[in-house]
Predict the structure.
Amino acid sequence: MVNDKGIKDKEVIDPFVVKQTSDLISRYYGLLNTIDTSSWTASEVVAYLTKTTEDLSFSEYTRNHIEKMKARGQERTSRNYRYAINHLERFAESDNIMFSRLTSSFLNRWIESLAETNRCKEQYPVCLREVYKAAMKEYNDEEQGISRLKNPWCNVTIPRSDIPEKRAIPASMLRKFFNVVPDRSRFTNPLMEVGQDVALMSFCLCGLNAVDIFNAEKDQYVNGIFHYERQKTRKTRADKGYFEIRVPEFLKPTFEKYLSKNVDTPWLFNFHDRLSTSDSFCANVNTVLVVGPCVTCPPTTQPVILWVLLRISGFVKRLRGTPSPCTNVLTSRLSIRTMNSLDWSADFIS
């Protein structure tokens, strides 16, 4: 604040104040000289300078970005973004991180704090980089020379995720898993039996995801053929991740055991009668597959979910003597043709 000594003939002569105002005026001139303002009004100039110099909240923008993802049907994917911003805020010790704080050095230090993780060291930075790119696209305008956000990611190195350990089991161990008889003394279709049956359905339908089983509707099962759009890829693929798989004869009793008898529900299976969401369904199934049924396995292969175990090179060939067209039965959907062509008989699990 200027006192009487800093003013002479109604002009500010205080050197500190003069320097501050001169720097501010110079900065404003620099911003206005980068764009064509010849047709702007004074109000438009003030609005532009105010918005351009205003710092933005990255935390708030990320949460809005997550809500937009949920509205587009990407709720499961949006969780990774939420986990990423939560971790960044814990690292920054603030729940409101501004864009100006996201420098290359700050981001590199944050990524270094993730070094001991397997996947997060790549997944979290990639998620937040996508959010930052979306913000740059929204707030920057190259045609008008408006650049409110600089890109700090150019000098940031994102490490690769660790390669997961291959934890394959032999076909004989898989047969033991399916041959375990669940305890039905207390409940009809106990959780162990449901997990075992869902695992069998997933395996025999070429690694069908549990979330696709849970969300299947009645019109997706016609004349012994199961039609579905894979939820994980239907938003990103031109064909919406559409597949058709013929249900093997020996699987039909298991498959039809869970068909919904409620004529008013659109769901194909009755899993909705006991579980409210696909998350709870997957959690219950995974609990069974990780903890039981009790099958004697080497210690390194015990806590493995079934559809992870199916990532075995040439597994179809080992089971039925039929060459697999790819090295990974689960990740290459070309193997669906091979699975549909197999003579699936009950001796598969005997």
